[in-house]
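BUG: 3D viewer hangs when loading the predicted structure for this chain

Environment: internal workstation, default settings.
Expected: structure renders.
Actual: progress bar stalls at 90%.

Input used:
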Amino acid sequence: MEAFEEKFRGAMKSSVPLLDKITNYIVKRKGKQIRPMFVFLSAKNAGEINESTYRAAALIELLHTATLVHDDVVDDSNERRGFFSVNALWKNKIAVLIGDFLLSKGLLLSIENDDFHLLKIMSVAVKEMSEGELLQIEKARRLDISEEIYFEIITKKTAALVAACCAAGVASVSKDEKMIALAREFGTLTGIAFQIKDDLFDFGSGEEIGKPTGIDIKEKKMTLPLIYALNKSTSSEKRKIINIIKNHNEESEKVQEVIKFVIEKGGIEYAVKVMHDYKERALSILKQLPSNESGKSLENLLTYAIERKK
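Structure tokens produced before the viewer hung:
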């Protein structure tokens, strides 16, 4: 990861001073970097890490960072990981261009090194992430998401990138299509479990999280605990809750009412159970991949994904 850090900084370099200033700001405020870890561990599980692996990790991180910068513009968010977002400091126009710049840097990194197999994996992920976001926006208008649609959204929106990390990691060291497909499947199942964990944070699930945030409810996002609770309610209860989400989602007391409703209907327990089911499915895929230290680390990373405190 230390070696990657240096290579990633290099991949973001630009001759335009403003670009350099902003990308330097982004690098200094990076997140947990779980995605590059999935790339490296998947690669090491299948073979020996090489320069192509570092490029795969840089491509993923450039792509992921570009989507985050654009997301902050779309959501009109002034904060990212406790710091000012790019759009808060440099306004929307520059933030959109920065996202475009990062995406093009990733594309060029692949093309210049003939990593077309990695570029294909990433391009599929970008397409699916865009489809997932648009599907969520479309469904949020009507608040009629079924569990089936919910899983379609998160498989595309969140899991596609984790799947790409694992597939690209293996593809950087091996041409074994079966192993690449297994790694992709492991990443998909892990990504779904990861997203359900994020859903649970909204309801303050787990003593350590404190007061429920209700951010997803305020943004009219239909998450698994809420979908389950609505399916278990009477038509009058359902109408009342949907009315709150549609028309009173900015009122803290009303949001807490929705959270209480979800908890009482068993939405939290159900989502936790489903999350653990996905973890078990991911572990069964992992058992079909080589058994080594990196495989064990992938298992630990999966466990972290669903046991993390934030």
